[in-house]
Amino acid sequence: MAIIVGRRSVLTLLAGLPLLAAAPVRAQSSLGPGVGPDQDRAPVRYTMTGFRADDDTVLAVYESFDGTTFTPVSEHAFTPPVGLVRDPSILLHTDGWYYLTYTVAGDATAIGVARSRDRITWTFVANVPMLVAGRLEGAWAPEWYADAAGRVGIIVSLTWGHGFTPHLLIPLDAGLTQWAPPLPMLGLGPSGPGSLGYIDTTLVRRDGRVFAFVKNEDTKLVELAVADRPLGPYTVIARGDWAGWGGPREGQSVVRLGDGGYRLYLDAYTEGRYLYSDSYDGFRTWTPPREVPGLSGVVRHGTVLAEYGGSAPA
Questions:
Q1: DSSP state for residue 60 in the 8-state scheme
Q2: Quick one: 308 exposed, middle or buried, by C-beta within 10 A (0-12, 13-18, 19+)?
Q3: What's the CA gap between 31 and 150, in Å, rounded?
Q4: What phi, psi does 5 have (nearest 5°)?
């Protein structure tokens, strides 16, 4: 049974006030470099999940210890019981489970969730319905997010047939099976009549602010916006091909590197290439994009999870 709560209750949860009797839902997140105690630790392993370029019903999992060279963990790790496993995003929960969220169909009104202990064997959890008004025509590219306190959410781009707007979902239980209605992220919707808005939103917390790397669906270029809180309002501060990544590009994923820089991974989907680019000056400038060895033409639209600690998990 879906549990519906009001906007005020969700905002209370986001503010960190006690809304639920259960403990806060906390995790390491690929979308939150610098979250909580991890901000002073170097990543010890990077895990990438993507859907196979030759079959968007199959999840592939890779790992790397330098963020550049990835080797297979399982190239046929998971196929959902129904639908696709496009645009997968991975999160490591403090309960020791890895959680996956993904797009189940182009016209879906729900997103998929699965989990795994070892990144090899995955169990389907649920298709989470989007509890919104009106005739929803698509729920695309869900991405995990963890705020400064480690509270978990999912960002998903919704469309009613008139462009995409990123929304934030907040879980109502520690098992990530019950979710509040999605809330729009202000400033990231369609800019006017005919605009397609923004999709593939990934958030990174830095210096007390929230930076959103977003794909402008009108230009197919990855732009940068900033806000003081996850729901916005956001201001787009870098437009067009500002970083020199070119286009079309999508599926951007950002992690913090062990030397203090940040790495952004990109799917050059019309070229069949998988790219990365680094920044060492607070996202102002980026290195020329280079191909991730061995992944071009193999996986699509992946998310990379940076895992922190004294040694790599088994």
A1: E
A2: buried
A3: 11
A4: -125, 160
Residue owning tokens 């996986």: 299
Give the single-character DSSP code of 23: P
pLDDT (tens digit, 0 to 9) for every residue of the chain, 314 residues total?
A: 333 334 444 444 444 332 222 334 444 443 333 333 355 577 889 999 999 999 999 999 999 999 999 999 999 999 999 999 999 999 998 788 999 999 999 999 999 999 999 999 999 999 999 999 999 999 999 999 987 677 899 999 999 999 999 999 999 988 888 999 999 999 999 988 899 999 999 999 999 999 999 999 999 999 999 999 999 999 999 999 999 999 999 999 999 998 889 999 999 999 999 999 999 999 999 999 999 999 999 999 999 999 986 544 44
Q: Please, are residues 165 and 121 in contact by the beta-carbon 8 Å criterion?
A: no
Of the candidates 163, 165, 140, 143, the one whose C-alpha atom is nearest the C-alpha of residue 155 is 143
Q: Which residues contact 61 (CB under 8 A, 6 or more apart)?
A: 47, 48, 49, 72, 73, 74, 75, 77, 119, 120
Q: Can you read off the two tokens belonging to residue 260?
A: 């203090």
Residue with tokens 């033409």: 297
Distance CA 169, CA 110 (A): 12
Residue with tokens 């979250």: 35
Q: Specify the long-range contacts of residues 160-163, CB closer than 8 Å, at least 24 apart.
A: 160/134, 160/135, 160/136, 161/135, 161/137, 162/190, 163/189, 163/190, 163/195, 163/196, 163/197, 163/217
Cβ atoms of 292 and 278 within 8 Å: the answer is: no
Q: What pTM did the predictor assign?
A: 0.87
- Give the helix/strand (H/E) hosting 108: none
